Amino acid sequence: MSPATRRLPTWVPRASFAHSWSARIGLALTATVLLIAIFGPFFAPHSPSELASGSYAPPSGAYPFGTDLLGRDVLSRVLWGGRSVVGYAVIATALAYLVGGTIGLVSGYSRSLVDPVLMRLVDILLAIPPFLLLLVLATGLGTTPAVLIIGVAAIHVPGIARIVRAATLEVSVRGYVEAAVARGETTSAILRRQILPNITGTVIADGGPRLTISILLVAGLNYLGIGLQPPAADWALMISENRPGLDIQPWSVALPALLIAMLTIGVNVLADAIARSRGVSVDEELIRR
Amino acid sequence: MDIAESRSQGPATPGPVSAKRPRAHPLVWFVVRRLAAGVAILAAVSVIVFAGTEILPGDAATAILGRDATPEAVAGLRQQLGLDRPVVEQYTSWVAGLLHGEFGQSLTAGVPVSELIGSRIVDSLILAIVASLVMIPLAVALGVVAGCRPGGVLDSAITWTSLGMIAVPEFVIGTVLVLLFAVRLQWLPAVSLLPFDGGPLDVPSVLVLPVATLVIVGVAYIIRMVRAGVVEVMASDYVQMARLNGVVERRVIVRHGLRNALAPTVQVVALTLQWLIGGLFIVEIVFEYPGIGQGLVQAVIARDIPLVQAVAMIIATVYVLITIVADIVVVLLVPKLRTAV
Question: pTM score > 0.95 for this model?
Answer without folding.
Answer: no
